[in-house]
Specification:
The structure holds two protein chains of two kinds.
Chain A (H helix, E strand, L loop, with lengths): L1 H33 L2 H4 L14 H7 L6 H12 L1 H19 E2 L3 H13 L3 H14 L5 H26 L3 H8 L4 H12 L1 H17 L2 H6 L8 H9 L6 H21 L1 H11 L3
Chain B lengths: L2 E2 L2 H29 L11 H8 L17 H28 L4 H13 L2 H11 L6 H8 L14 H26 L3 H9 L4 H12 L1 H16 L3 H6 L11 H10 L4 H30 L1
Helix pairs in contact in B: 1-13, 2-13, 3-4, 3-7, 3-10, 4-7, 5-7, 7-10, 10-13, 12-13
The chains are: A mainly alpha, B mainly alpha.
């Protein structure tokens, strides 16, 4: 019995030590962000003097050439529609596929995995040209459209898998009561689909917010560029102002991390479902 | 069980999704394939392929006097050779080990944070870890009396810094999937094995590992895709430098397309990455196809 207790204590200590080592770089970024640069220049782990300050955050938010405040607002303007639109379109498609016999079901499933494998580089040049032809380069419409199209396959697949687990007794009952297909979807199916919709939104929003490559090729005006695009601009070429860069990094990552913390249940479920079962 | 679809069902359910995918995913993909065969004067050619595959940016096995850069293709291959086994085994180990740890859930959340942050921030984190003055890697090395430097700034160590840094970012992915997989293994298997006097290691090898095989397929596939597509981290941490020593395929495609404005060469690199990712995704495509039957 005693051996077991010792073992348990040892396991727990090692586990916590691993966690501590793992979180160390994040602690570092945080410490560097909340302290003046002269204090951390020889290592943020030295605490001879410790003067917490928010000046790095203020400087990052109001940076003259790459204001993070403006960047985060821009990112939000993209991420909200680029989450809502594909979710609606893909939920409808996923429902259709789960309830009706369409001729090319297998093709669709294979297409989903195909887009999962597809690198964004594969669409980059034609998308840029297409958007130039539409006059949409350097507009948010371009980015929202591409994110929507890019998100649709996996969300469709994800929602279809979820709808397949829902019994359709209620839908049949509604149909007997004379509801149309669309009413059934809107009134009966959608309210029951909330958990799956929450999972898919959490992931899609995080991905759009975190996207860098598509934004890099489609949006370039200094006042329009997104939060992720401003990070490399803050890095500087010869000299890295770690205080500023740390604060900006925290601002960009705090949004996905908050989503993860508050929607942890849905997030992980989405992640596991998204990777295929 | 399924209802027969009428044409208008296709219209309302499928058409909007299909139209958007066709215009913004399928068309550009096919167009890129086409572009890879178009010469500067507009004629069809294979010269883009020849030029790219012969380019030192892509494939340079001799290196620069036997040292980095070896070309983006080889750099990606190195990334896979180092990163794939480490993250897969580390994730499995963490999932199994932290199960028996009080508060293991919180430790798992810490580890998973690397996955949650935008990869552009991930690149900054790597740069930060390996920095000469503020980095934790140097803190540890200095503690044991080793010399310290900014590891991402030297040709011999830039790529390795990125690769090992990206272990920190990605290990949470396999850990989370394996954790979910472990929950599905019935406890009675272990109890039966324990009654038969099986050791802990034997149980792990004979019960846990075989039953997690489907998860391993997903983990390996997704990790391969991630490694082949790696872009943000390199862009922000080193921009492929110094002197191309940490360059990767996705970044080289971007440089060809939007710095040198050479769509033909860029398309070739994009096609190459896609061929590799499709190859990596074969098990996933196959299982998804079976499932759709």
């Amino acid at each position: 019995m005693k051996k077991k207790t010792i073992e348990k204590v040892a396991f727990t200590s090692i586990g916590w030590l691993i966690g501590l080592i793992w979180i160390l770089p994040l602690m570092g970024i945080l410490m560097t962000a909340i302290r003046p640069y002269r204090e951390v220049i020889d290592g943020w782990w030295k605490f001879d003097s410790f003067t917490p300050t928010i000046s790095n955050f203020v400087n990052a938010l109001t940076h003259p050439t790459a204001s993070m405040l403006e960047g985060m607002v821009n990112s939000l303007i993209i991420a909200v529609p680029a989450t809502v639109l594909p979710l609606l379109i893909a939920a409808i498609a996923g429902y259709g596929i789960s309830r009706y016999k369409f001729p090319f079901r297998k093709t669709l499933v294979i297409a989903v995995v195909f887009t999962l494998a597809l690198p964004q580089q594969m669409i980059a040049v034609p998308i840029f040209r297409l958007m130039s032809d539409f006059g949409l380069v350097d507009t948010y419409a371009a980015l929202i459209l591409v994110h929507t199209a890019w998100g649709i396959p996996w969300i469709t697949f994800f929602m279809r898998n979820y709808f397949k687990t829902l019994p359709n007794d209620m839908e049949e009952a509604a149909r007997i009561d004379g509801a149309t297909d669309f009413q059934i979807f809107y009134r009966v199916v959608l309210p029951n689909a909330f958990p799956a919709m929450a999972s898919a939104s959490a992931l899609q929003f995080t991905w759009v917010w975190s996207d860098f490559f598509l934004a890099l090729i489609l949006v370039y005006s200094p006042d329009k560029i997104l939060a992720t695009q401003r990070i490399p601009l803050m890095r500087g070429v010869y000299h890295v102002d770690w205080g500023l860069l740390s604060a900006a990094s925290i601002l960009v990552m705090v949004v996905p991390i908050l989503i993860y913390i508050f929607l942890q249940r849905y997030y992980v479920r989405g992640m596991v479902g998204w990777s295929g079962k | 069980m399924l209802r027969k679809a009428k044409p208008y069902h296709f219209g309302i359910f499928i058409l909007p999704a299909l139209a958007l995918m066709a215009v913004f995913v399928m068309y550009p993909t096919l167009r890129t394939v086409f572009l890879s065969f178009v010469a500067e004067d507009g004629s069809l050619t294979l010269s883009n392929y020849a030029e790219v595959l012969r380019s030192r940016d892509i494939f340079n096995p001799g290196g620069y006097e036997g040292d980095f850069p070896f070309g983006a293709l080889i750099h990606n291959a190195l990334w896979i050779a180092i990163h794939l086994p480490i993250t897969t085994f580390l994730g499995l180990f963490l999932a199994v080990f932290l199960r028996n740890v009080k508060g293991g859930g919180i430790v798992k959340s810490f580890i998973f944070l690397g996955m949650v942050m935008p990869m552009i921030v991930g690149g900054i984190m790597i740069r930060f870890m390996f920095d000469g003055s503020v980095g934790v890697v140097n803190m540890a090395l200095g503690f044991f009396g080793f010399p310290t430097q900014t590891w991402t700034a030297y040709p011999e160590t830039a790529l390795f810094s990125l690769i090992f840094g990206s272990v920190w970012l990605w290990a949470g992915f396999s850990m989370i999937l394996y954790s979910a997989g472990l929950e599905t293994i019935p406890n009675m298997y272990y109890e039966a094995a324990r009654i038969d006097g099986a050791s802990r290691i034997k149980m792990f090898l004979k019960i846990t590992v075989p039953l997690l095989k489907p998860i391993t397929v997903v983990v390996v596939t997704m990790t391969l895709l991630w490694e082949l597509k790696i872009f943000d981290i390199v862009y922000v941490a080193t921009m492929g430098g110094p002197g191309g020593t940490s360059n990767v395929l996705a970044l080289q495609m971007y440089l060809y397309a939007f710095r040198e404005w050479d769509p033909g060469k860029a398309a070739v690199v994009a096609v190459l990455i896609t061929l590799f990712t499709l190859l990596a995704a074969i098990p996933l495509i196959r299982s998804a196809g079976d499932e759709a039957e």
